[in-house]
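note to self: dont lose this again. the chain is below, predicted strucutre after it. 189 aa total, dont forget to put it in the shared folder this time
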Amino acid sequence: MRNSLVILLGLLSAIMLLSIACGSDEADPNATATPAPPSTIPVDQRAAEPTMAPTSVPATKAPAPVGSGVITLDIDVNGDALQFNISEMSADAGTEVVVNFTNSSGVNSHNWAVVESGTKDAVSVDGTTAGPTNNWLPVGDSRVIGNTPVLGPGESGTATFIAPVAGTYQFVCTFPGHNFTMFGDFIVN
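---
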């Protein structure tokens, strides 16, 4: 009985320390995505000045206006580092968006998901609970706007969705632990 109590207390202590060490950036309103090194960002996508902090999405969303056409966006990872190769993507509200995600990592599995602003860490935690059979994403979660399945090293996948109302959203890899460094802004004009 005493050994079971000691083990239980040890596990609870480890969980508490882990939750403190893995704190969320969501409490910090000034937190922004870590940009990819400039040499990995295509020249036509480099910002002349530093980007501003993400804006919030209205609590009540009106239907997105019906857009015309389809926009195709490409994204990859930065080698075996836990980073995407770009830190910002954009589309017009109501447009059909096709995101081609290539996982060029030689060792890591990743997914790509666009979520409501400020929810990337919460969606990732809920995705960990949902498990690998659900692509590390919570099933039927309204915070998830579009996503690819989990892709193994060298695989590619596609996410297709309609861009929501104007605002700044987040894209993220929800594979456990990757959300802390693999994220960026998805701007809808």
